[in-house]
Amino acid sequence: MHIDHLPTPALLLDEARLRRNITRLDERLRALGVNLRPHCKTCKSMDAARLCMASPQGPITVSSLAEAEYFAEHGVTDICYAVGVAPAKLARGMILRERGVRLSLLLDSTENARLLAAFAGKHGHVFDLLLEIDCDGHRSGLRPDDPELLECAAVLTGAGQNLLGVLTHAGSAYDLAAPSPEAFAALAKQERDAAVSAAQRLRAAGHGCPVVSVGSTPTAFFGRDFTGVSEVRAGVYMFQDLVMAGLGVCRVEDIALSVLCTVIGRRKSDGNLVVDAGWTALSRDAGLPGRFAREGYGLVCDVDGKLLPGLRVAETNQEHGIIAAREGMCPPLPVGAQLRILPTHACAAAAAFDAYHVCREREVTALWPRCRGW
Length: 374
What we know:
By secondary structure, the protein is α/β, with parallel strands linked by helices. It has helices spanning about 15-30, 45-50, 65-75, 90-100, 110-125, 145-160, 180-205, 215-220, 240-245, 280, 290-295, 345-350, and strands spanning about 10-15, 35-40, 60, 80-85, 100-105, 130-135, 160-170, 210-215, 230-235, 255-265, 275, 300, 305-315, 320-325, 340-345, 355-360, 365-370. Strand 13 and strand 14 form a beta hairpin. The relative contact order is 0.16.
């Protein structure tokens, strides 16, 4: 099949770009002597994950138990669930572990540690656990010097649970005011230092801490020294997107994901093109601060994937996308013409679809299903 025959909107994945992106990070981390635990929250696809896993069994990272269950069904047994676990989800996690999946869970408070310990005691189960460390004030986690870090560890090990180590995420890498290789390298050092410091505190208190897990796509690409780190996690690197291109992590030409859409009209008031991909297909992620005027909700390519300079998706309704030119008017494309939209945020755009149409130029070579839900 050729992409010209696909119903739109459709999610396209350029296999050659995907493989290049995967190889680029693999080779970099291998040279630095640190293991990669790819984050599959972006791809949510076993076919894609096979290309980046060290073995058919993993390791991988996931962001939902639905992902963990999906990958476990396909034979993956080394899975890190890198979102703080809600007490109501412990039963699902226990079922996976009883099936032989080495599922590690994450938490960041004494309150949650006590709830997990009570559940584990009631069911006679031992969980593998990581404590989340806050390395940049971006989201969640314990500061490396927080007294609660040792309190959490004591609650867990006192209840007979298996404390594997610590995990952190440099989320602020995605919104640096002045991104540069030097800025990302400094943030990667901060990320590493926070995790290693927390691990050292735990070890000094008598807790084993074999896992020191860090990661974000920018710090994975620009970190210079991962001494003391056991693994790096990254996810969007497989596909890349306009956020990563805007940060200088990749080029626009490296973006492997695009949304195929069709011109369905031209807005009478301003001549802007109307396509059949709205926020349900592209998301409404505005990307990097200050770049919306340039990139909007996605940059526009022709059906062959060649960038059409100056065009962007300027507005989205549920099923309508409005393409505008930064200067002048849009080209006179006819109704029925197909375009590709490069996503602002690959994870958000892909979330709208059940499968990837894997392609080489205009030829569709495979259909790769994606998992959905939580």
